[in-house]
Amino acid sequence: MYSPFTPQPFGIYQPAYCPATASPAYASDSLNTLLKHIANQSATFQSQVSAPREGFKPRVTLKHLADGDYQITIAKHAAGGEDVFADYQIKFYNRSSTVSDLEIVSESDKLVKVFQFDAGDYDLSQTSYTTVDDSYLAIRVPYISRRKQELQKQKLQKQLLKQQQEEAARLAALQKAQAEREFVRQQTVKALERQMQQEFARKVQEAEEARKAQQELQQAAIRAYQQIQAEAYGKRAEQAQQFLFHSFVGPYSFAHPLAVSASVPQTQCQSSPFSDTVPRVSEPPSPRPVTNSPIPQVVKKPESQVLSKKPTIVSVSAPAELPTKTLVKAPSLEEVEDEEFKGFQLK
């Protein structure tokens, strides 16, 4: 007994030929007959050519419509200007389609069939069209089960997740390396800043020490200069005092008996203010002792010199060493008015 699903060569399934029912009516009825079959997890759309022409290659288009509708268009092929579209006998094998789902639209240049099936069961991107022995046009759409599709989806998701993880790991490694480089750079900058600060502090300290040393040297020089100036001023003051003493008072002072004589340097006295011709004294006279000091001899001058109002002071030799700060008692008026001074008058 023949079955309408008897396997045929080349993996193409078609109804068994029944001679008793072989008639044009059968061929016409087969246009409205949909045979479902699933083999090797694929859906096969077959176009049977009852009277194929040489070199015939029909053009088939599979188009996805809205709401799960798919449209197959088999274009008319004209050979030698003849219409051969009526020679086609098309059979569809689909997993979910039924007779009621088919709609045949006959136009002048093409035959359109619209059918419905679950899009999740088929991969329309892998649709192929083949001819078998120039008699059949097989439109094959690979079948994909929902489980297999889900597994493929999970596999794709895992691959995508793995890629994302690898990208995240690569980005994390890049960020870590960048952070390490930034840390090293910051540490280097901090070390350089500390070194520069230490160097600057050292230079400031050295400059401060040099400034203090210079200031101490300046102060020492100022103190030495002030000391030298003070010593020189003291010597000049002492010399001026001795000069004034010997110039205005002299060894025959008529000052108060309590006059005090300071140390006299070995210098020459200036001329007396009482005369322009008074000879200079080479050495100051030695101070006379307080008790019984002899009166120095004075040469009596002629009368002409006495009347000229220019008295002459005789130089008196002094001892080699002079005592310092010795009290000297000036001669009294009675002692001066001695017989030797009777002819001597100061005017």
Give the end-to-end Cα distance, rounded to a whole number of Å: 195 Å
Based on DSSP secondary structure assignment, what is the total number of beta strands? 12
Strand content: 15-25%
CATH class (first level) name of the domain at 9-144: Mainly Beta
Rg, nearest Å: 75 Å
CATH architecture of the domain at 9-144: Sandwich
The number of helical elements comes to: 4
Protein structure class: alpha+beta
What is the CATH topology of the domain at 9-144? Immunoglobulin-like
Task: Give the H and E element order.
Answer: HEEEEEEEEEEHEHEH
**What kind of sheet is the major sheet?**
4 strands, antiparallel
What is the mean predicted local confidence, pLDDT? 59
- Global geometry: rod-shaped
Stretches with pLDDT under 50, minimum 5 residues: 1-58, 76-120, 128-139, 253-279
Cross-sheet strand order for the largest sheet: 6-1-10-9
**Range of helix content:** 25-40%
Keywords: Coiled coil
Coiled coil: 144-227
Region (Disordered): 269-310
